[in-house]
Specification:
Helix content: 40-55%
Number of helices: 8
Radius of gyration: 19 Å
Shape: globular
Largest sheet: 4 strands, parallel
Number of strands: 10
Length: 242
């Protein structure tokens, strides 16, 4: 049972905080209750994966972030994800469920929704190149994220459920890049050169509380799952622009 259900757009969670708490937080509890009731308490055969998030770290207490880094979420989305993460741990410890959480850092790809900044950048760069659009409007350009390829991260999810014992894992690249870094590569890949003539900032895209820096330490996943990312940051941007 892979629980990927979520109000997953962080900016939207500020506008629809109650819905985010209900779906992203309590939705995990409902799923776990179903697993507990259907599978039974003794030797429950169902294996459960919870999609936890790097946004739980928020205003980070240490860099890089590991499985033991304290949480300090900075959005209703992050707060709801902490609840989902902790209730998964609670059901594992209380009922012996095979319940894992993957604390996934930003995972991107060509299927990313247009509301997310990486897809917004790569899609608009392509539209500018094709003469359909002439500018890209963004918020904060200084935020730094640990961006990886979604396909690599799904392999990590699967690997967690193949282990003999359930556990929680940070899935990340161990690298951080700013939105400006992403812009630079995207516009070069689109054949546009410098992004500055095309980009305008608008305060409406700034969040009430910003997460400035996220970078994960995937050591545990590498050592216990044998997982490493295969797609590099430049390859990811090139893929998304194409």
């Amino acid at each position: 049972f892979y629980n990927l259900g979520s109000i997953s757009f962080v900016a939207m969670s500020f506008n629809q905080a109650e819905l985010t708490g209900n779906v992203t937080g309590l939705g995990v509890l409902r799923a776990l209750e179903a697993v507990r009731m259907v599978g039974g308490v003794a030797n429950n055969p169902i294996r459960f994966y919870q999609a936890s998030s790097s946004e739980m770290f928020g205003k980070v207490r240490e860099t890089p972030q590991t499985e033991r880094t304290p949480f300090h979420p900075r959005s209703p989305y992050g707060v709801a994800k902490v609840y989902g993460h902790d209730i998964t741990v609670n059901y594992r410890e209380s009922y012996g469920l095979f319940a894992c959480s993957g604390i996934l850092f930003n995972h991107e790809g060509p299927r990313r929704g247009l509301e997310f900044v990486t897809r917004k950048i790569t899609n608009t760069a392509a539209r500018i190149k094709l003469g359909i659009d002439n500018e890209l409007v963004l918020g904060n350009l200084d935020s730094k994220r640990d961006w990886g390829y979604a396909g690599d991260y799904v392999k990590a999810m699967w690997l967690m459920l193949q282990q003999s014992e359930p556990d929680d894992f940070v899935i990340a690249t161990g690298e951080t890049h700013s939105i400006e870094d992403f812009l630079t590569l995207a516009f070069v890949n689109a054949g546009l050169g410098d992004w500055r003539p095309y980009v305008r900032q608008d305060k409406k895209f700034f969040r009430p509380a910003e997460v400035d820096l996220l970078i994960g330490d995937p050591t545990k996943a590498r050592e216990k799952l044998g997982w490493t990312r295969e797609v590099t940051f430049p390859q990811l941007v090139e893929m998304m622009v194409a």
